[in-house]
Amino acid sequence: MEDIRLENLAVRFPVKGGAVDAVDQVSVTFKSGEITGIIGESGCGKSVLGMAVLGLLPTYAHVSGEIWLGEDNLLKLTPRQMRTIRGRKIGLIAQNPGDSLNPVRKAGGQLMEALGLNTREKSCRSADARRLLEDFGFSGEQAVRVLKSYPFQLSGGMQQRTVAAMGIASGASWILADEPSKGLDEKLREQMYETLRKVKKHHANGMLMITHDIVLAETLCDSVAVMYSGQIVEKGNSVIKSPRHPYTKGLIASLPSNGMNAMKGLAPAPGEELKGCKFAPRCPYTLPKCMKKRPEIYKDESGMVRCFLYA
User: What are the residue ranges of helices labelled H in the chain?
Assistant: First the structure.
């Protein structure tokens, strides 16, 4: 099984008068056999990181560093080679299933097209599609109806499960789930949780789950990486229960179940340059050197953390 390894990954977007570092020199390994959650506030760079792994960033994005899938550096592959990687090695469960499905094509055709990425004979794909939908909780009759329906004829939960089925249809060893609970009400969120549990149990060897939903991350993930202003500031298998980085502590404290204790201050504005630690202006534990120098990543048996408190 192949890990996904990032080495000094940076993604910059040009803006008037300069550039925005959406992903800032990230080095991390996502292990196969695990579900890794990537959490953080909106705009922290987690979805950009995911799209960089998939090679789906816009052409004006400037990407540097390395993205390794096993022995392949994905940033060195041609667009044609990356199209082979997507689907066959890395599947995508996109956010907003209503927007992800083609509204003028029946769900069955779209699902069978995804199955075709694994070179199945066309005559077998219909049966495969039905079995795949049954894996995601549809009865036999429901599965047949879904295959014959246009997306607008399906409920939000049915669309979500169909998109998840498309994401794993090609037998990809890795799945990237991008904000799978975004915009869903409580009932649909529970359906989505169950869908992802099925993916975890029966299909993917590894999964990256990009989410703002900390409850989802705690429920399903083996390890969690925390992003802040383009950097991963903490990663480990007990991040939610035993946070170490001051930002992670503030994020967990802000949950409704913990009293909704809001962090002071704001994240750096896009394009804002800070000499020291990016969280230092908001941190209750700031040391003099935090304002002058960026902390390195410190590793131990619990994982990794980017903070001088653990030097």
Answer: 46-54, 79-88, 97-100, 107-116, 122-135, 140-147, 156-168, 186-202, 214-220, 246-253
Classify the C-alpha dihedral 223-226-230-231 as positive or negative: negative
Structure tokens at 191: 């359906």
Long-range interactions of 285-291: CB distance < 8 A, separation 24+: 285/246, 285/309
Instruction: Pick the most confident of 110-124, 186-200, 291-305.
Output: 291-305
The helix (H) or strand (E) run that includes residue 22 is strand 18-30
Spatial distance between the Cα atoms of 191 and 131, rounded to a whole number of angstroms: 19
Q: Does 113 have pLDDT greater than 80? A: yes
CB distance 228 to 44 below 8 Å = yes
Asked if 140 and 134 touch (Cβ cutoff 8 Å), the reply is yes
User: One-letter amino acid identity for 33?
Assistant: G
53: phi then psi, degrees, rounded to nearest 5? -60, -40
Q: From 136, 140, 139, 111, select the one nearest 126 (Cα to Cα).
A: 111
What single string gives the DSSP state of each residue in 35-86? EEEEE-STTSSHHHHHHHHHT-S-TT-EEEEEEEETTEEGGGS-HHHHHHHH
Residue 286, pLDDT score? 95
Please report the pLDDT score of residue 124 as a whole number.
64
**How far is residue 299's CA from residue 311's CA, in Å, rounded to a whole number?**
9
The reported pTM is 0.89
pLDDT at 225 over 80: yes
The token pair at 70 is 């096993």
